[in-house]
Specification:
2 copies of one chain form a homodimer. Chain A is an alpha/beta fold. Chain A is built from 12 helices and 15 strands.
């Protein structure tokens, strides 16, 4: 069995997989509404919110695209922070949807500060929303979401703050309500320790007003998930087995507790980053996330190193994307990872580096 | 454990569930492309096509909506046969997407003939496509897809024929290529014997030209699935575990063979329909599908009968939708069902009917 250290998909605990493999239930039953009500409560804990939560069939990309589609109307002005492949994808999609984009761009590997964000936005009027990618999975850059969200909110009280929390919610501190975030998305195959196929979201009051102003009945309009979700139901056929998995993972996470999870993830990340530097490597991100580390060994064929790790030790890291394809490696610290597992990866990395 | 006779979700065989519960693989590996290539070949068999096949994360609704979105451009004229809840949904979505709809409507329970379809279309010019719901799951009405598709094709050689085969592909005869169908969709929780969460599609040459004329990078544009699928890859994060399940089901179905499956389903349906009528019941559909039967007992509280079956025998049928809510019951004959199982349901139905 392969050791998956890719920043999604992550290894799935047996407890979760066994839940997924339970006998199929119908989604219009009490068994389902009981399951879903539990998931919704579990998600409130993970997102740290008292607001509405729900899930959708789809990957994280689907979740963020659906949110953009459901929250904003063509012609509205939306700022999109772009610091890597995924945040770039949200900008592309926003443009496709007919939104007027304010691009807040930085080169890959760099972050952006709250001061920079506010300074760039000040020359605009009637900004409907901002899309913030908490951790840019392509480079491992983590933004200071708390500072950015609160600074933006202070300057633009009515702005709708949409956060891609795909590789952060459940992995590192995330406080939806305290940070006055309006909408956030996470995907199942990240800190939620599940197979890919579902994503989850949380909605605050301001975003809810936006959702309620639309009434289209199509699959990706999140208003439909809100309406049905109030009764702990799904607007369409529900992925019952995948939701069993989400329910099981949320139970495990509640038992361990977010402070311990965040701490374990932070410690694993620190051990890994220190180890990489000690081996002569570089961390790609200026402000690295604890959920994953993008790194490179200068002067080495990093793609070859990644392949050697997989072939010799069955340790699977992810490579780079876009301009960083072939140039970097990425290692996950989410979903049950700890410092000891990171030591194991570092040892094997060292062995590979010392090969003739 | 409940006996699921709902026309989706269906019971999932252990062989399929065990495949789903395998250790997680990454979707950018040879293990994945091997799995996906096998699925694509299996789908060609199920759809009876030499064309491109693929899967998506999503329910059947998502599949048909994505197809409409990906194949047609706003302003194009598309005919939509509407004979029940689901075909109505495709009309609503087409309108939402900006298509000009030609409504071919019939009351619920009735079908439509090829002569009627062609006669109604003849007064129009430049019709881009037609959306045909092979079996309308809300009423169990099966259209004569072969006749309709071939008649429409003869009159409109360039029309794009999009078929909702959600409750027919893999359950009853379906010949994508022979019937000159351009695009067809099926969902995992029907004849494919899998949990809900994925859907599959097949694309013919004419539809491919339409797909290729669009280049948007968003999640639901099927062109992206085509491009990546040529390399047996996914354009986004793939639902690896659900795809393991699809692969396992396609293997079972290939082993049994479509003629035997179709025959078994047909026999189960016939036994069930005859039994219902013998018990004093009525079949809702004028031209019933073999994949499911919608039926009612006149003068009885059909909703109460359905509940009694569930409470006393743990046998779960579906109820009616829209105007038929509370008025009818629906029983599946898909996904491993046989005549003996239908006899069992009939026996319990009889027992319930004779209760004081």
């Amino acid at each position: 069995m392969a050791y998956l250290f890719t920043p999604g998909p992550v290894p799935v605990p047996a407890f979760v997989m066994e839940a997924i493999a339970r006998p199929v239930i119908h989604h219009r039953t009490e068994a389902f509404t009981t399951l879903y009500a539990g998931i919704q409560a579990g998600l409130q804990y993970i997102f740290q919110t008292d607001g509405f939560t729900g899930t959708m069939i789809g990957s994280g990309t689907y979740g963020v695209e659906s949110a953009i589609y459901s929250l904003f109307r063509p012609g509205e002005k939306v700022a999109v922070i772009q610091v890597g492949k995924f945040s770039q994808r949200w900008a592309d999609y926003s443009t496709l949807t007919g939104l007027e984009i304010i691009a807040l761009e930085k080169e890959w590997g760099k972050g952006i500060t709250s001061t920079e964000v506010v300074a760039q936005l000040e020359s605009y009027e009637a900004i409907a929303g901002i899309v913030i990618t908490h951790c840019e999975t392509s480079t491992g850059v983590c933004l200071d979401l708390e500072e950015i969200a609160l600074a933006v909110r202070q300057k633009f009280p009515d702005i709708c703050i949409l956060v891609d929390g795909i590789t952060t919610v459940g992995a590192i501190p995330f406080y939806m309500d305290e940070w006055e975030i309006d909408f956030a998305v996470v995907a199942s195959q990240k800190a939620l320790m599940n197979p890919a196929g579902t994503c989850a979201f949380a909605v605050g009051e301001r975003a809810l007003l936006r959702l309620k102003s639309t009434h289209s009945s199509d699959f990706r309009n999140l208003y439909n998930y809100y309406q049905a979700g109030l009764r702990h139901e799904y607007p369409f056929t529900a992925p019952t087995q995948l939701l069993y998995g989400i329910g099981a993972a949320l139970q495990i996470m509640k038992e361990e507790g977010l402070p311990l999870i965040w701490n374990r993830t932070h410690h694993a990340a620190k051990v890994f980053r220190d180890g990489v530097v000690a081996l002569g490597g570089e961390i790609v991100a200026e402000t690295p996330s604890d959920s994953l580390t993008a790194f490179r060994f200068p002067g080495k064929d990093n793609n070859y190193l990644k392949k050697q790790l997989a072939e010799k030790y069955d340790i699977h890291l992810a490579g780079g994307q876009g301009p960083m394809k072939g140039e970097i490696m990425r290692c996950s610290h989410m979903a049950g990872m700890d410092a000891e597992m990171m030591q194991m990866v570092l040892e094997k990395l060292e062995a590979i580096l010392h090969l003739p």
